[in-house]
Structures are given as structure tokens and as C-alpha cells.
Amino acid sequence: MEAKNKSYKIFLFSEHYIFMVTNTLEKMIEAGNPYIISSDNEITETEFIDKTKYSDYSIIIALLFLFYHWLELILKGFLLVKLNIKNLTHHNIEKLLKDFKKNYPNETTIISFFQKYIEINNMPSFLKNFFNKNNLTTRNFYDFFKYPLTKHFNIEYDYASITRTEDKGIDFFKSLLTDIDQHKKYIVKLGREITSQ
Fold first, then answer.
1. Is the pTM of this model over 0.85?
2. Which residue in 39, 73, 177, 190 has the fewest CB atoms around it within 10 Å?
3. Which tens digits make up the pLDDT trace of 53-64?
């Protein structure tokens, strides 16, 4: 299969991830990011889970994994046309971004979107605090958004800064959803251009 076809398949596959992210963000915003429920009556565990199912406390880690995996797939889709497939068997999105900037230097709008969520110095404080507190970079997102401990099970990650965030979380969800909506059209346009040439 030629590189353009592989890229096209990756772009199509990536849609599953970003649809889940955007649909979930919409529900999180609509629900108001609750993690505490008060009532005059006793609340059952089932009721609590139902009322908090769209809070950052319940789903932010999985949502961020899906978002970063989408970024990885998009970057790989673009780079497949320019690079050898053997160079793309890793999950290091920092390296993928560096390669994207080198191969698509004129795509400044897309680059700025990627930089905002991949480079810690450009991140919204909601994410930056988490990465700094845990001394992490996005290079290893596959580890800390999939497992609560390091590979050798000796360090536990601290997710407190991205859970139970109330209004701060809602602001981040709205901003992320807006960024995705605004930049996805540029990503799709470039994807169509490189796979149809």
C-alpha cells in the first residue's frame, strides 16, 4: 500500500478518537463538571455515578489519552507521505511535531495548535500544572494516561490537578473544544491535499 493510502486510512481511523473527545467534552460542559452531589435524601452509588459520569473526576484521564492519541495519529498521517514508515513506529509526539514542523513549515495554524497541546511551555495552565507536577512531557503520554504507575511500578502519578477542578475544568473543556473545532478544518484540508495529489 502506498504512503498516501496509508495516510488516508490513518486520518479516517483518527476520526473515531476525536469524535469521542468532542462528544464527551460537550457532555462534560453540559453536565457542569460535578464531582460532589448534595441531596436531602440518601444518594445511592448508582445515582452518584450517573450524576458524575461526565466530570473530570470520572473521565479526564481517558479523554486526554484519546486526545493525545488523535494528535499522534494525525501527525503520523501527515508524516507518512514525507518519511519512511520505519521512522513512525514510536509514540513520541514531541518528535513527531518536530518532524511535522520541518516537513510542513508553512502550516503555521496547524503547528500552533499542536504546539499548544504538545509543548509544555505553550500549554494551558490546566495541563501545564499536571505535567510539571509529575515532571513529565507529552513524549510519554502513552504511559501516564494509560497506567497510574511508572513502567517499573515504583512511582505513582498525581492526577489531582486535572480532577475535581469544577469551573476551571469547564473553562479548559470549552477552550479545548473550541480549539479542536477551529483547527480541525485546517487539518482536514491539508490531509485531503496530501492524500489526493
1. yes
2. 39
3. 888 888 999 999
